Amino acid sequence: MITGSVASCGSGGTRRNRSRPADEPPVMGTLVLDEDEALELLAYLVTAARTQVDEAAEYAPMRLLTAARRLAAAVAPRASEPTRGFVAEHLEPWSPLAVPRDGRAEYADRLDELCRALATHLTAHFDR
Q: Which of 33, 66, 78, 97 could serve as 37's disulfide partner, Cβ 3.0–4.6 Å?
């Protein structure tokens, strides 16, 4: 299960709460996904990766944002108030069908803003 004490990083690594030495076992935090929800997300990501091989490149951001929205929807009810706020303000407004055909620069700007907002949220979350 995914817990509130571990966050996935874009580099494929894991960032653990800094208050604990790396050689200590992880502390169980608030569970934010049960096994069924985690498996559903895993299945979506794996099948989206396969589908992406045959699809136009524009669909990749849409599929990743769909997965992020699914994760956010599962996490938000059991997450902290700041995380619920981040989800409501920054992820829920994204259309799951927002595929950039025209206006790619504006779309990239929106993604950059989403990344900055997420970085701000993660910094506050892990520095508490």
A: 33
